[in-house]
From TrEMBL:
Family annotation (PROSITE patterns): HTH_TETR_2
DNA-binding residues: 43-62
UniProt domain HTH tetR-type: residue ranges: 20-80
GO molecular function: DNA-binding transcription factor activity; transcription cis-regulatory region binding
Keywords: DNA-binding, Transcription, Transcription regulation
UniProt-recorded name of the protein: TetR/AcrR family transcriptional regulator
SUPFAM superfamilies linked: Homeodomain-like (SSF46689)
PANTHER family: HTH-TYPE TRANSCRIPTIONAL REGULATOR BETI, HTH-TYPE TRANSCRIPTIONAL REGULATOR RUTR
Superkingdom, natural source: Bacteria
Pfam families per UniProt: TetR_N
Amino acid sequence: MSSHIARPKVALPPIRLRGRQRVAIILDAAASVFAEKGVEAATMTEIAARSGTAIGSLYRFFPAKELLADALFARYAETILSGLTALADTAVALGPFGLAEALLALILSQRPDRDAAVAIAEMRDDGAALRAGLRDAIREHLEVILTVGGLAPDRAKRAAPVVLQAMKALPLLVREGIDEMATMAELRSMIGLYLQDAAVA
């Protein structure tokens, strides 16, 4: 999938609740297929079958696979950023270890969409810029969270990319077959101790 490919102007936005629910099911199915096979090898027919959607209905909502991929990447970005925004309101109450656990739980909960988003970015000519834009937005949100959580602003700015890399390690290690709960516990301790130290430095 390339950014220079001509695309239909827009996907059909669902108006009714039933339509919105159907689109969510389609996006869930697309995430699985894209993550398993890659965007290029995935077919709309397979996505329709996995989502239990008539092929005509799928094309009515998403006239092209590129539009479906765009919508899925946008959903992932919106969900992860809104989750981080919510954490900013509770960072102080959570403390360093609670915050570490919440950050890890957030990224793990988005693993299917994240895997698909990586596949989508890899197939686009502007994929590097797309990923960089989202990475920068996540770092900015993390800076706010860490500042609210007790870090000095300059330290929060330095710590945000470090914490992000530790967060990203969780789904990667789980994908390698390493025990999810044990990995999360280790990363929770690592991030929590790091934030605890950074807050008093």
